[in-house]
Prior knowledge:
The chain has helices at residues 7-19, 25-43, 62-77, 94-104, 146-153, 200-203, 207-211, 245-259, 286-298, 312-316, 329-336, 355-368, 433-437, 443-449, 460-466, 468-475, 486-497, 536-549, 554-572, 580-591; strands at residues 3-4, 53-58, 80-85, 109-111, 128-132, 165-169, 191-195, 213-217, 239-241, 274-278, 302-307, 323-326, 342-347, 428-431, 454-456, 500-503, 507-511, 517-521. The chain is an alpha/beta fold. The strands form 2 sheets. Strands 1-9-18-17-16-15-14-13-10-11-12 form an 11-stranded mixed beta sheet, with helices on both faces. A 7-stranded parallel beta sheet has the order 4-3-2-5-6-7-8. α11 (329-336) packs parallel to α12 (355-368). The longest helix is centred in the N-terminal third of the chain and has 19 residues, at 25-43. The protein starts with a strand and ends with a helix. Mean pLDDT is 86; it is low at 157-161, 260-264 and 374-417. Bound molecules: ligand NAX and potassium ion. Ligand NAX is lined by residues 14, 25, 28-29, 32, 59-66, 93, 95, 134-142, 169-170, 184, 195. It catalyses: (6S)-NADPHX + ADP = AMP + phosphate + NADPH + H(+); (6R)-NADPHX = (6S)-NADPHX; (6R)-NADHX = (6S)-NADHX; (6S)-NADHX + ADP = AMP + phosphate + NADH + H(+). Homotetramer. InterPro entries: Carbohydrate_kinase_pred_CS, CARKD, Ribokinase-like, YjeF_N_dom, YjeF_N_dom_sf. This is Multifunctional fusion protein.
Amino acid sequence: MTELLTAAQMRAIEQAAIASGEVTGLELMERAGRGVVEAIFEEWPELATTSHKAVVLCGPGNNGGDGFVVARLLKEWGWEVEVFLYGDPEKLPPDAKVNYERWGELGETFAFSGTFYHPERRVAYPDVFFDALFGIGLTRPVDLGEEYADTAESVPGDGLRGNLRHVAIDIPSGLCSDSGKVLGAPFLADMTVTFHGFKHGHLLDFGPTLSGKVICKDIGLPAGVGSGAFGNFPYSDRVTSAFDRELQFDQVMRLAKTRVKTPHDDVHKYTHGHALILSGGPGKTGAARLAARGALRIGAGLVTVGCPQTALWEVASQVTAIMCRPLDGAPGLTEALEDERINALCLGPGLGLGADTQALVLAALKATAPRGPGSSPGQDRSEHNPAAPAPEPGPRPTSTAAPAPEPGPRPASTTPPAPEPGPRPARAVVLDADALTRFERNPQVLFDALHQGCVLTPHAGEFKRLFPDIAEKLDAPATTGPAYSKVDATREAAKRAGCTILFKGPDTVIAHPSGQCSINSSAYERAAPWLATAGSGDVLSGMITGLLARGLHPFDAAGTAAWLHTECALSFGPGLIAEDIPEELPKVFRALGL
Length: 594
Ligand SMILES: NC(=O)C1=CN([C@@H]2O[C@H](COP(=O)(O)OP(=O)(O)OC[C@H]3O[C@@H](n4cnc5c(N)ncnc54)[C@H](O)[C@@H]3O)[C@@H](O)[C@H]2O)[C@@H](O)CC1
Ligand SMILES: [K+]
């Protein structure tokens, strides 16, 4: 499991380890520096010889301390190394000071006060420039003058400096480790070597652009409860990543299990759920058809497109395995939902911004709201109980349509699964696009009707319409670190709405009102810029709806669909159009060994 850390969590883990007496801060710093050297030799084996040159820019904190370790190790290896320090050596924290002095036995440290220019001593044409200026301790914008900005922001490996590689230690300086926002002049790295676990900032916002490639080195910090990077943090504070193939595999395996018919299974199409996708009128049915195809391919047993009578022939003439039915307005929907086998709905794609859309959404939410005490709409704002035993992530048995298959075999994992983020009601609803925008002027009306079975899938514009105050905080330029992040924003929105929110982007964040959160990053080796194509979001909504029909919990359905959506794009490659995404799913499933 890939667990993503905030600066505060990383500090807490380090401090707990040091306080336990198992390791000292100095040992951790030595391992961090060694990890950086290992990483550059692994990445660029041609550097693992003696005749290379490095410039190391150290800052006033422990990130600078790591830089002094790197300088010493490379010098001992036989490199020519030049070290600059931004700050007063007397004020370095204790571990960094020790390493400053150790380096001092091998070479000189030049004061960096805005210039690298030292005519007598400058290392000409270095092979690597190390950024050990600021790490997770960045608190304000970096402003070190033009020469620094020029060096830090130069295009990695640009021609001026030959094959100069820019390596950031822990996180590029000027990048906020919690938010991925930029504070002042940022360092543009070819490679970033971080420790123990990825930080949120490596995946969010500018993180992937500035970090180059991120390598995470183990520095021997003991694993806590959960034996992952998180130590003992409550689940409600944790964020996992869609790098997390294991977790996603687990979900997909569970789906696959119910595809296999054994002599004991009474599996028929209704046991895989029935998804209803609402469509707009004539000329506007394409989005719903795309969503329907996504729902069907991902495994919903039945998918019906409900459309105005006037659009019936348009839909009917373009679908085959997908059913269609006339469904006019809120009364029509309420009547359709008397069929209790319909257990997942999708509203929004192509629906239009008329009053009808609001009425349809409210009718859908009313008909699907859990009944009974303590389950009133908009009330799923409870926290997890972190002390509660973590159950197996088995199927959510609340769906009337989905059977209760055995959990599929899981890849070996040392991390216990997260507790269930609350029960899911029998029926679930995905709201996207126009179904969100329609409530721009009265979001509270929507929030009052939402329930724990809902998933909202806004892109940045839609998010802003529903949560303008949260978006304002998120969009404000960062002036201090750690800055308010997309994780903070999505969590806050999920709490307010009382349901799962999937906030789209290359850094898609999925949050549940309990605080449970994950990031589906389409960056680094999962970068798929061709996914930004018309209709791609409609397919995602449909895929989530399909997984909900299969009985997955909204939080899991949203995360798994987002992950598979990116996998489909990667598998297909450039040239992809929205229609290709669902059709790629079988190949992705096969590649997963299903
Ligand atoms: N024992 C430990 O705590 C370990 C720490 N490690 C390294 O230590 C780093 C964290 O060290 P620190 O907490 O000392 O933080 P940093 O080294 O990131 O920076 C903190 C210092 O920079 C100053 N500062 C912050 N923003 C500034 C700005 N814009 N302009 C000028 N000065 C600014 C702060 O006032 C403070 O003096 C990690 O990123 C990691 O590289 C690793 O060595 C592993 C072990
Ligand atoms: K750094």
